[in-house]
Amino acid sequence: MKESTSSTLLTATTDSVSARLLASGSNNARRGASQISRSYKQASHFFLQRRFPEALLTIQPLITVQKRSGHADQDAEAARAAPIANASRSNRVKVWSLYLTLLNAIVELGPESGKNLFGNSVWRAILTKIREATIWGEIVEVGYGGDEGSVDAEVVSNLATLLIAHSPTQLITQKRLEMYLSASSYPDLDLSGRFDVSRENTLLEQNPLRGGGTGTPQDLSSRIKIIELYALHVLPRNDEYKYSKEFVAMSEFLDDDTREDFLHALQSLEDQRTAEQEREDELVRERDAELDKQRSNVVPHVTEASQLEAKLLPQKQERESIHEHLNSEKDYGIEELTTHKC
Fold first, then answer.
1. What are the Cα distances from residue 83, in Å, to 27, 212, 216?
2. For 194-224, how does the pLDDT look when each residue is reduced to its tens digit (9 = 90+)?
3. pTM of the complete model beyond 0.90
4. DSSP assignment string, 288-338
5. For helices 217-228 and 256-341, what crossing angle results, to 10°?
6. How far apart are CA 148 and CA 127, in angstroms?
7. Which of 13, 87, 252, 320 could make an S-S bridge to 188, C-beta 3.0–4.6 Å?
């Protein structure tokens, strides 16, 4: 009886502790969500007023890993995560989208205004992580625990748009998008076969669709936006028109009208690029022809001068000979006259 009573008390105590922990966790979650919401609204207010330094300072605590002490048993993955990583999907999308929009505005200030507002080192650091595309890995690591496939589609679209606008090469953008599309395990976006034929369709067979599917119109719209960025903006920049057409043609997310529009746009881009290349080649040929003409004009002038010089050489030599002879006679006459007087 005592054992049963003790067991009942232990169970009741455990349930009570669990309830308090759950309540505490729920309260912490609500406080965290409230803080994120307040910071987001304040940062948005600063951004709209073009007070970019204040906006950045306000949003940074949400996207920066917080250093904590006295938590030796803290999970390693949680230690690498920023507060935004534990937020709701809507808050994640809003905060990351505002952050990326803010970075775009800061870069577009230009060197002079950017350095005046943020200082040389801060502005250069922002510019560098966008131009070198390290911003993508930063967000994946601190915001999504290093899981490429779990990044919200809207955040992926904003990242790609930022890099397309400011990165000097789209090779890294292409790689990042392909990693995302492959890691998120979307059937018609499985790119494994492009690198290893033996892996074709393995993601579809082994991994179910994860968060970020096309269960809602908004999800589908986000997915189509990523396809558009990848196929119409990134691949053409890397001269991969053929693969881009294949990618669009096999995408199950595009309806017939959208697919036709994308393929038509790709053909127009390719035709434009071909025309530009032909024009560049023509300019090179014209420049080379002009240089050849200039060189050919110099050679005849040199040849004509040499021929004229050769033609006049005998006359010059004859004049020099007569001049020497007259000088000789003149000297002889003076010498003779001097001798006769003596």
1. 15, 21, 27
2. 444 333 332 333 333 344 455 678 888 988 9
3. no
4. HHHHHHHHHHHHHHHHHHHHHHHHHHHHHHHHHHHHHHHHHHHHHHHHHHH
5. 20
6. 23
7. 252
